[in-house]
Design a protein that fits this description.
- Helix 8 packs parallel to helix 14.
- The chain has a 6-stranded parallel sheet with strand order 3-4-2-1-5-6, sandwiched between helices. A 6-stranded parallel sheet has the order 9-8-7-13-14-15. Strands 11-10-12 form a 3-stranded antiparallel sheet.
- By secondary structure, the chain is an alpha/beta fold.
- It has 2 domains: 167 residues, Phosphoglycerate kinase, N-terminal domain (Rossmann fold), CATH 3.40.50.1260; 176 residues, 3-Layer(aba) Sandwich (Rossmann fold).
- The protein is built from 15 helices and 15 strands.
Length: 368
Amino acid sequence: MKLIQDVTDLKGKRVLVRTDFNISLGGNNVIDENESLRIRAGLRTLQLLSDQGAKVVVISHIGREPDESLRLVAEYINDELEMSIGFVPEIIGETVDKVISELDDGEIVLLENLRSQVAEKENSAKFAEQLANYADVYVNDAFSVSHRAHASLVGIPKLLPSYAGLQLQDEVTNLNLVRDPEHPLVVVMGGAKFGTKLDLMQQFLPIAEKIIVGGALANRLYKDQGLEIGKSLIDNEGETVELVHNDEVILPKNVVTKDATKLVSEVSADEQILDVDVSEFSEVIKNAKTILWNGPMGYYEGGYKKGTIDMARMIAESGAISIVGGGDTVTVLYDENILDKFTFASMAGGAMLDYLVHGTLPGLEALN
């Protein structure tokens, strides 16, 4: 991929940046401090372009509904992050044309939610052309959505000189540390959705020395081993035969229910596994040279946090190359003030998993 920092003649040029400001506003329309991590990650490329005198047009999406707005993101950047950025409550049209035509060198403007346009998800060639007409140069800095074949990611690069942004470069560089790791490699998988992580675990079976499984993912493997899991959350998608009968895949022996910590073999039919005891994995983590972690070890959002926090601290103290991804997991590191002790925290979810399995994404292919 061509890198945006290698371009030195951007003064006065219009640069269209596809970034990822897709943060959760919760029920009170307030951007929490930990949610701002994704915003901050995207500002580095915008600052680089502004410093070079480019006229920067930023496009992003937010939420799942077309009527959700990026206005609060622009206000947050201006008020809390002290960076000057304009906002246009439209994505195409005469108002947008006028604002962009009047941009001064170094100015930045954010357009409205891309997904307000059905044409974005449909990868409409016409919509890609409309966006491309706003600029002389295109930058993809949205690795976290580059697994989507949307117009802003794969359509525009066909029409403009295209480059990788700083955050996208960081994602690729650091995830490659796991694809070609220093050994021993330990993979830690948690969370609830087995379907999204099954391919990844199978991909790493021949590579990783150990795959530690917690969260609701572990419940599925307990069940497939014939153990009682009671009313525990479970995802029945996919086949787990390769994982259940593999010595490299290890599960916690002790689990946490509402009332007690007990051996998993002691869980009764009316109980629910809510967390796990990860202390038994301390030696495995301590001896690792590379660690990949995605997903909490228990029902984190329900207050059952100890397993996840203990895992975070063990990895932070291991001295290994440590790559972590998944929104809940990164939030734990932020809340525990140990984010800086990890080699890299990915801002991606599904895109991280897809890249680790396939080694490429549609958005990256488009840049190439």
